[in-house]
Amino acid sequence: MSISYNKVILVGRLTKDPEIRSTMNGNNVANFRLAVDRHSSNDQDGTDFIKIVAFGKQADFASNYLKKGKLILVEGSLHINQWTDRDNIKRETAEIWANRMNFMETKKAQEANEFSAMDITVEEGFSDSDRTSRNDPFEEIDDELENDALLEESFSDLENHLSSDDKPI
Fold first, then answer.
1. What sign does the dihedral 153-154-155-158 (CA atoms) show?
2. pLDDT tens sequence for the chain (169 residues)
3. Nearest to 131 by CA among 139, 120, 121, 119
4. Which residues are in coiled coils (predicted)?
5. Are 5 and 37 in contact (CB under 8 A)?
6. Model pTM greater than 0.70?
């Protein structure tokens, strides 16, 4: 009798949003890649991009909650797919079939990441026409100075208050 055990545990970040497909039976299948840092004693550090496949409830979880950049733990088993391509060349690929997935960041850290990404989107999508159409009560601030004399005058007052030891060389 032979004893064997096939279990893989990975912690990494999604490289893009999961791709969701359905089987002929209507079951969902999620595919995504996980970027996992590799640390080794022989200076072969790097990042591995590992294909993850999730079925059923795990695929539904991936579809609803996983997004690019999320740090997750995946527990599953290693599967080697082998096939012969059109040119009659034997090929194989490794993938992890997920049994369990957990978030590895706190809810607060996830919300902070989502909030900062939302800020970028808002900034990129904001235009002056949006401001006027919303009847924004705040005055518009012009970032360009029309008269540099005002700026020079402000700094000259500051310079007069500095002692001779504090003045720049």
1. positive
2. 679 999 999 999 999 999 999 999 989 999 999 999 988 777 778 999 999 999 999 999 999 999 999 999 999 999 999 999 999 999 999 999 999 999 998 767 766 665 544 443 333 333 344 434 444 443 444 444 444 444 455 445 545 545 454 544 4
3. 139
4. none
5. no
6. no
Q: Show the 3-state SS of the chain.
A: CCCCCCCEEEEEEECCCCEEEECCCCCEEEEEEEEEEECCCCCCCEEEEEEEEEEHHHHHHHHHHCCCCCEEEEEEEEEEEEEECCCCCEEEEEEEEEEEEEECCCHHHHHHHHHHHHHHHHHHHCCHHHHHHCCCCCCCCCCCCCCHHHHHHHHHHHHHHCCCCCCCC
Q: Domains along the chain? A: 8-105 (2.40.50.140)
- pLDDT computed for residue 114 by the predictor: 59
DSSP bridge pairs for 61: none
Sorted by sequence, the CB contacts under 8 Å of residue 77 that are 6+ apart come out as 6, 7, 8, 96, 97, 99
Handedness of CA 20, 22, 26, 30 (dihedral sign): negative
